[in-house]
Design a protein that fits this description.
Length: 187
Amino acid sequence: MLDINKKPIVVVLWFSVFTAAAILFVVLPLVGDIKKIAQAIVNQEAIAANYDYRIANAREFTLFAKEEKNGLEVIETVFVDDAMPLDLINSIEKAALDSGVGIEFLPLSAQNLSADWPFLKIEMNLSGKFGGVWRFLEKMENNPYLMEIESVDVVLNELSGRKLSGVGDNSVKTHILLKVYAKPQAG
């Protein structure tokens, strides 16, 4: 049988085996689960921080939009309504009248849908004094709509006798191509 002196060694040995098995089969899986839970908590904190950041940005933008509401409304007015550009045409006709030049519109080009931003092409012929054409171009530059003057072709009218002095007195024919930016379509 067992010797009394060996009994504590057997108990310690069984206790050690039991402790090792408990550590191996109970504690180590718990540690692994604790690591997984800790990682999940870190991920949730990162997601929450991202949401907090996005909420803060949304609040800042809301404040900005309230402060700049008038400016944003003004920006919207620089784009022409491509479905009904009557205000634009009227402003161009008024600029021609105020500048003292005659105007003839050529057919409107269709809106360019493949571009990054929609626009209209407007072609026109002007006739009148060179100074009037110059004033018209200045008025187009200061027009409330966002536009580019793509080309200007000025030809001295042969009936003016080709005066060299006083260029502003010479009669000219001018062909102008405008690119006018339109409101983007909601889509």
